[in-house]
Design brief:
With about 180 residues, this protein is of the alpha+beta class. The chain contains three helices and eleven strands. The strands form three sheets. It has a six-stranded antiparallel beta sheet. The chain has a three-stranded antiparallel beta sheet with strand order 2-9-10. A hairpin with a 6-residue loop joins strand 7 and strand 8 (about 95). Helix 2 (about 125-140) runs antiparallel to helix 3 (about 160-180). The longest helix has 22 residues, at about 160-180.
């Protein structure tokens, strides 16, 4: 079975509206730079200038040459307990998004950039192994298939019913993994 493997978001420079708002970068008339790196060395800068309800950005190469520039619209939604949440509007699809990725000389959303998260590229077996590992660590039994769960005490402050449900789920997942890895 051939799988269509997309590029992963972890490889790309990103800007996050939530973080920029929290750190007061998205105030009107604010200007700032972000260093673009590739392989650990600087390859240029992204220059940002915040205007009213939009952000003008430019990519400047390490030689000081303007590579590209564009404007990103900002939109806001009201929060239930007051205040407002800031979002970018993707220049390509016009969707409201919190994160834009720099790829092919544009800042676009994950969908328009055709990017995936690493977890979306795991096989079903790897996904189950990851889930078992996560559940085992929540139960205090680190290491996969190493420690018998019957020897693990219930973690302090965990409800008994939660502990039992997680034990049962780990046991089910481990049986599925064993059946998949060593079919009879």
């Amino acid at each position: 079975m051939s799988r269509n493997i997309k590029e992963r978001v972890e490889k790309y420079f990103l800007i996050d509206a939530r973080r920029m708002r929290r750190e007061k970068f998205l105030l009107p008339t604010r200007k700032f730079l972000a260093l673009l790196t590739r392989g650990g060395r600087g390859v240029g800068y992204l220059s940002f200038e915040v205007l009213e309800r939009r952000v003008r950005w430019s990519h400047i190469s390490s030689e000081g040459i303007l590579v590209c520039s564009d404007v990103i619209e900002l939109t806001f939604t009201k929060c239930n307990f007051g205040g407002e949440r800031c979002w970018f509007v993707c220049p390509s699809c016009q969707r409201r998004v919190a994160i834009l990725y720099y790829s092919a000389n544009s800042l676009l959303c994950r969908m328009c950039s055709q990017l995936n998260y690493a977890s979306q590229q795991l096989s079903k077996l790897d996904s189950k192994l990851r889930r078992v590992d996560s559940l085992r660590s929540k139960l205090g039994a680190d290491g996969m298939f190493v420690q018998k769960l019957s020897l693990v005490e219930k973690p302090k402050h965990m409800r008994h019913i939660t502990y039992l449900k997680r034990l049962i789920r780990v046991h089910q997942l481990e049986q599925e993994i064993v059946a998949k890895m060593w079919p009879t």
